[in-house]
């Protein structure tokens, strides 16, 4: 049984240690805390190998994970992840859908072979089950349509699947015998069946608020370069009232301004990472923060490093590759 913790890592190195850990045991991802982490980044992971599945209990400080198109191309993966909430609140975005997990037992599925993002808004505990894609595809056919759905673990097939997933993490030791393989596959197929019922079955109940939030985020992502982008403009694009727009973001513990700032800074980080030769001020303009001093201050507050210093590190990394 594998155990990993940031507690014995110097505070200044804890976030990077966590990002490296996730990349080493899962696949390449970018991570970032939602705010500077002067108090440290206390996170732990316990891994169980059971019947051909990897089952992780993850307890972590607030952070954001993104698997970009570039990372899926350079570091491909052929697994899906079932993410089940035990404590806290989390949001997953993939294929234009938004899954918001707020109650213990809620779960969703993400395809690690395509781009997605996940945000853990408070200290969160979750169970992460890595499943070979063919097991899920054998039940649902195409995996894409069943990703990033909010699955409530309180009733119906999803409740049965949720109980089966929780039973996996309660196993005392690693096992890979025939009985364990049968039980593990059954849990994965129960989850896939619940997702299929959610998407195509008679109980399908779309979440209109999540859909509207997704539309607002997509509009903002498409217009990050507009420095004067306002909540009124975003609300009018849907169209909904500004008050309702703020309520949608409140559902996931955020505000339009906070999400827009984070999206702009993350896009800036990606631009600096992808093209280190690009001038820093040009990057700021490209993400809607044209004043150089303001852009530098926001970037440093978010990533604990100035954009020029980050660009220099990215340039060295490109040179090494």
TrEMBL record:
Keywords: DNA-binding, Transcription, Transcription regulation. One of its GO terms (molecular function) is sequence-specific DNA binding. PROSITE patterns: HTH_ARAC_FAMILY_1, HTH_ARAC_FAMILY_2. The keyword Nucleotidyltransferase does not apply. Residues 214-313 form the HTH araC/xylS-type domain. Transmembrane segments: none annotated. It holds the Pfam family AraC_binding_2. InterPro entries: AraC-bd_2, AraC_XylS_family_regulators, Homeodomain-like_sf, HTH_AraC, HTH_AraC-typ_CS. This is AraC-like DNA-binding protein. It comes from Pseudonocardia alni (Amycolata alni).
């Amino acid at each position: 049984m594998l155990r990993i913790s940031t507690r014995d890592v110097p505070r200044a190195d804890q976030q990077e240690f966590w990002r490296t850990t996730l990349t080493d045991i899962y696949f390449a991802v970018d991570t970032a805390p939602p705010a500077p982490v002067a108090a440290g980044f206390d996170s732990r992971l316990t891994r169980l190998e059971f019947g051909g599945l990897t089952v992780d209990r993850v307890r972590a400080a607030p952070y954001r994970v993104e698997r970009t198109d570039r990372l899926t191309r350079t570091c491909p993966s052929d697994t899906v992840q079932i993410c089940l909430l035990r404590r806290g609140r989390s949001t997953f975005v993939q294929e234009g859908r938004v899954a918001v997990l707020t109650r213990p037992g809620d779960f969703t599925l993400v395809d690690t072979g395509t781009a997605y993002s996940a945000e853990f808004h408070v200290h969160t505990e979750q169970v992460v089950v890595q499943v070979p894609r063919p097991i899920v595809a054998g039940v649902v056919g195409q995996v894409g349509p069943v990703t990033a759905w909010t699955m409530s673990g309180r009733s119906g097939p999803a409740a049965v699947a949720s109980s089966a997933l929780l039973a996996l993490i309660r196993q005392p030791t690693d096992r890979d015998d025939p009985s364990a393989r049968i039980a593990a596959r059954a849990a994965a197929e129960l989850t896939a069946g619940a997702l299929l019922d959610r998407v195509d079955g008679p109980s399908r109940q779309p979440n209109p608020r999540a859909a509207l939030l997704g539309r607002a985020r997509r509009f903002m992502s498409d217009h990050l370069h507009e420095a004067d982008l306002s909540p009124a403009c975003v609300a009018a694009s849907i169209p909904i009232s500004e008050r309702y727009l703020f309520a949608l973001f409140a559902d996931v513990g955020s505000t339009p301004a906070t999400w827009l700032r984070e999206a702009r800074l993350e896009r800036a980080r990606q631009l600096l990472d992808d093209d280190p030769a690009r001038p820093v001020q040009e990057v700021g303009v490209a993400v809607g923060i044209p004043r150089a001093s303001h852009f530098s201050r926001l970037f440093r507050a978010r990533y604990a490093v100035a954009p020029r210093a980050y660009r220099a590190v990215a340039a060295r990394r490109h040179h090494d590759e």
